[in-house]
Amino acid sequence: MPSPQSMTHSVESTNLADLLERILDKGVVIAGDISIKLVEVELLTIQLRLVICSVDKARELGLDWWNHNGRQDRLAPAHAATLEAMDGRLGRIEQALAAVVAAPFQSGSTPHE
Question: How far apart are the first and last CA of the chain?
């Protein structure tokens, strides 16, 4: 016959396993903010966000950072367009600068040293 202690331990571990399964299946979010102020001047703010869930639930929520860096991947199209625009502007600046540098030589005069 099992001792009462082993019987209690078995029941508790089953409840703990069920609780853990529910948490991983549904997910839990813990959020908090810490602010440090001195004479009503905010010196430091720390925002804490903790998500506890299963890998499947995380993927469902779009939190699969282990496959890719989510922020960079979401911003990549905007960054590509910005980089392309900057590349075009740089090309125009280089052409204008080359024209300014070449202008004295085209008029036949030599640059002063």
Answer: 106
